[in-house]
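Researcher: Quick one. two chains, 228 residues in total.
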Amino acid sequence: NAGVIQTPRHKVTGKGQEATLWCEPISGHSAVFWYRQTIVQGLEFLTYFRNQAPIDDSGMPKERFSAQMPNQSHSTLKIQSTQPQDSAVYLCASSLERGHTEVFFGKGTRLTVV
Amino acid sequence: GDSVTQTEGLVTLTEGLPVMLNCTYQSTYSPFLFWYVQHLNEAPKLLLKSFTDNKRPEHQGFHATLHKSSSSFHLQKSSAQLSDSALYYCALSDRCNYAQGLTFGLGTRVSVFP
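Model:
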C-alpha cells in the first residue's frame, strides 16, 4: 500500500498561469478530500468526493478553482489564473467512509506562484 | 459552525520534559476528536482519536482525554523525545453532519531540543 500519492511534489507557476495537481487515493477508499495548508490558515477544507461524485465544495474559492474525479483512481485540482495568494501546500486525503474513520493524507503538492 | 482552537503556535522544550498541547472545540453536536501529527516533508498522520465510550486513547506515549464539560481534548506526553518534533493538529468530525469533512485547528509546532 503506497498510501495516497500526489504529483508533482513541487510546482512553480507564473502569475496568471494554470496549475493542475494530481491525486491517487488509496485503492478501495470511497471518500477523497482536498485541503489547503498554510502557516496562517492551517489546514483548510476545500472539497470532498464520495464514490467519485462531488459532495461538498463549500471550501473551494468560487472562481478559478475546480476539482474533478473522473475515475476511482485519481482526482485533480485545477487552479486557473494562479495568483501569489494561491501559494500553499495542497493536500489530498482519502478514507474508507465519511466522518469518523481514519483519514489518510498524501505528502502534498507545494505550489509556488511567482 | 464547528471550530477548533489550538492556543499555542509554537512549543519549545527540552528532551525528557512533559508536554501538553491545548485543544478546545465548538460543535453543534457531540463530535469525535482527533490529533494528527505531521513531521517535516511528510503527510499528516493520525495520532489519536477519541472513543465513544470515553476511554482515554494512547499512542506512542501520547494520550488525550475528551472533556465534554470544557469542550477540550488536550494532548499530553510525560517525557518528550527529539523525534516528537513535528506539527500537531487537533481536529473534529461532527457525528451527525456527514456533509462536512474534518475541521482542523491552526496547528501547534513542537520543537524538542537535547
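The first strand of chain B starts at residue 3 and ends at 5.
Researcher: Thanks, that's what I needed.
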